[in-house]
Write a structure and sequence with these properties.
Layout: E1 4-10, H1 14-24, H2 35-45, E2 49-56, E3 59-73, E4 77-84, E5 103-104, H3 109-126, E6 135-142, E7 155-168, H4 169-175, H5 185-198, E8 204-207, H6 212-230, H7 242-255, E9 261-268, E10 271-281, E11 284-292, H8 302-316, E12 321-326, H9 330-335, E13 337-348, H10 352-364
Parallel strand pairs: 4-6, 11-12
Antiparallel strand pairs: 1-2, 2-3, 3-4, 3-5, 6-13, 7-12, 7-13, 8-9, 9-10, 10-11
């Protein structure tokens, strides 16, 4: 039985919360498609949004939020865009969502995306919500799901691609080894040497907040460290973006009571090494952000030490995966194993503007 979709304006976030949470219980666990993430995202952005809902009979089996926007390519081509769980505004989208897609009942995952795309193409031809569009932005999704976004009269353009890395904590426990024992000789030596140097200040320890107020305080401390480190650079620290800060403060306040926030302060005695900010959902730990104290001694490796201690903590706590998520940073490859690339997509209608753009690109040799 095909999934019947409808699209309608969202007047206020709380209109969809109950329906979203109900579907979450039947969906594959994914923190960034949970209401813990989507609720703050809607509340903070406060822009026109559409709900896309798929049903079989009277049962809701798929939900998503679409945001219309317009963009220009090369400063010349005006393009009408709808984005799934993104706004189309780079500042608002700095929260960097991964594992995107529709929230869907796990029993209907295979057919959901195809029926969704068919619906959007048909709705656009009829002039139904979400209105006229030239392309759909879906960023970012695991490569294993890309096959679901083929066809339907749309051309597919890859706009980003980055490898993901993770540590299989279940396999680590089965091995009977400590995490450091599984690393390469060079990485292991760097971490152990760095730990010994830090311990000249006192024993290494991990402080974890006991209340949501403590968690917010840790996050604010991380912001101050991150800003000192990155604000002189281009791009500057994400903490210089008020939308980014407001989103995460809202998220922490609402997700902390559900046990989904993992934020820790790693110190050697009273000497701060760094702060890690992660999310936890159904045994899956998502590393999101670090704020590290860099010092003149190059043998001090605050990031490697903080991650090594945090990974061992979550292994001992019974979690299943420590996910570094997408990114090309060298430390991710040193500390984790490759999983799969995460890809950002544009799905485009057969429009003349894209044919012209393609010709211009071929002449100028630009993307």
């Amino acid at each position: 039985m095909s999934i019947q979709f409808q699209c309608y304006p969202l007047n206020a976030p709380d209109e969809i919360e109950s329906k979203w949470r109900n579907l979450e219980e039947r969906a594959r666990e994914n923190f960034m498609l949970s209401w813990s993430w989507i609720g703050p995202w809607l509340r903070v952005n406060r822009i026109d949004a559409f709900v896309v809902e798929g049903r079989i009979g009277q049962e809701t089996v798929a939900l998503g939020i679409l945001i219309p926007s317009s963009t220009r390519r090369w400063g010349l081509f005006h393009c009408r865009q709808v984005s799934l769980h993104r706004t189309g505004d780079p500042m608002r989208d700095q929260i960097a969502m991964e594992y995107n897609g529709l929230l869907c009942d796990r029993r209907h995952e295979d057919e959901t995306v195809g029926d969704f795309l068919d619906f959007l193409v048909t709705a656009e031809k009829r002039g139904d919500p979400p209105g006229e569009w030239d392309q759909i932005e879906i960023a970012v999704v695991p490569n294993a799901q890309l096959k679901r976004y083929r066809g339907h009269g749309l051309t597919r353009r890859v706009i980003s691609e980055a490898m993901s890395y993770a540590v299989d904590l279940e396999a680590l426990r089965r091995s009977g080894k400590r995490y450091l024992q599984t690393l390469s000789r060079n990485t292991r030596a760097q971490i152990r040497k760095s730990m010994r140097l830090y311990e000249e200040h006192g024993p290494l320890n991990m402080q974890r907040p006991s209340t949501v107020e403590d968690a917010l305080s840790f996050f604010q401390d991380a912001g101050a460290m991150h800003t000192r480190r990155w604000s002189p650079h281009d791009p500057v620290s994400a903490f210089d973006n008020p939308n980014f800060v407001e989103f995460h403060e809202d998220l922490i306040q609402n997700a902390w009571p559900r046990g989904e926030i993992d934020i820790s302060r790693i110190s050697a005695g009273d000497h701060l090494v760094g702060i890690l900010y992660n999310f936890v959902c159904a045994g899956h730990v998502y590393f999101y952000l670090s704020a590290l104290r860099y010092e003149q001694n190059p043998r001090l490796k605050p990031g490697l030490v903080c991650h090594a201690l945090t990974i061992q903590h979550h292994c001992d706590a019974g979690q299943s995966v420590y996910d570094f998520m997408a990114g090309t940073s060298r430390y991710k490859a040193s500390l984790g194993a490759e999983t799969e690339p995460m890809t950002g997509l544009l799905l485009r209608q057969p429009r003349m503007i894209f044919q012209i753009e393609k010709i211009v690109q071929s002449i100028l040799g630009r993307q």
